[in-house]
């Protein structure tokens, strides 16, 4: 899934009228590429959005350093009273990884971007 010329990628999108930020990630995330994931997550957490979601549907490999990045963001957002959701459907290989490592007990894992965005607070008015 990683393009040999460009490597892994992240795209940060502000959605749900500013109430959520979505980080879409693609490629393989390992020791050599985790900085790309960290940069995308840092841009997302720098916003004031009450919900940050990371979409892993296009990730092929997520090594332990990538899992650690997700845990750090979850903790940081929790300290700020914000929410973090990981988007990966049950059929994706990463779903099994999250379950096997018991991270489904710590992280909010949802099967779709729509379900993640439904967790965002609604704009008043």
TrEMBL record:
PANTHER family: ANTI-SIGMA FACTOR ANTAGONIST TM_1081-RELATED, ANTI-SIGMA FACTOR ANTAGONIST TM_1081-RELATED-RELATED
The protein's name: Anti-anti-sigma factor
InterPro entries with a match to the protein in the record: STAS_dom, STAS_dom_sf
Positions of the STAS domain: 10-120
Top-rank taxon, per record: Bacteria
Pfam assignment, any one: STAS
Molecular function in Gene Ontology: anti-sigma factor antagonist activity
């Amino acid at each position: 899934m990683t393009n040999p010329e460009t490597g892994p990628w992240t795209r940060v999108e502000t959605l749900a009228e500013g109430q959520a930020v979505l980080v879409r990630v693609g490629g393989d995330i390992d020791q050599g590429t985790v900085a790309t994931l960290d940069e995308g997550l840092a841009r997302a957490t720098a916003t004031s959005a009450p919900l940050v979601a990371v979409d892993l549907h296009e990730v092929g490999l997520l090594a332990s350093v990538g899992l650690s990045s997700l845990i750090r963001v979850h903790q940081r957002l929790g300290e700020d009273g914000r929410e973090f959701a990981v988007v990966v459907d049950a059929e994706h290989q990463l779903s099994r990884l999250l379950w096997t490592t018991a991270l489904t007990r710590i992280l909010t894992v949802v099967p779709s971007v729509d379900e993640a965005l439904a967790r965002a607070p609604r704009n008043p008015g």
